[in-house]
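Sequence in, structure out.
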Amino acid sequence: MEMEKLLSTSLSSHSITHSRLKSLAALAQSTEDHISRVGLALSIRMGVVEVGWTPTESANERGMASSFNEKHLKGKTLFKGELPLWMALVLRIQHPVDYSEWRKIFVAHWERGVEELSIIAEREGDWIRTLHACLPN
């Protein structure tokens, strides 16, 4: 099924997402992989993401992305042993029809979530406050 392909695939982000992951991982004193999962969850909670969604640079980020390449992340690394859970969460809000669409939706959620985390972190200035701001009211 699609699950094996998703686990063995390599997901690629835009360079701005890689830059944000580096910054957030430093702020959180954690890994880019952990930040990626937090971002993925945050985006899924936000609702449907367009298949072709792409990140945008804020005024503060202009030029930062040029010093980074795209981030490559293996499906096994992002999903760990929890791919069925991640797929179930996505299925609550949208309905990918094939492997290609699943892959694009996961990349879009990953990047949108990292962008949202970056916006929150810039506003909050501290990782604990950033996580607190991600909690539902």
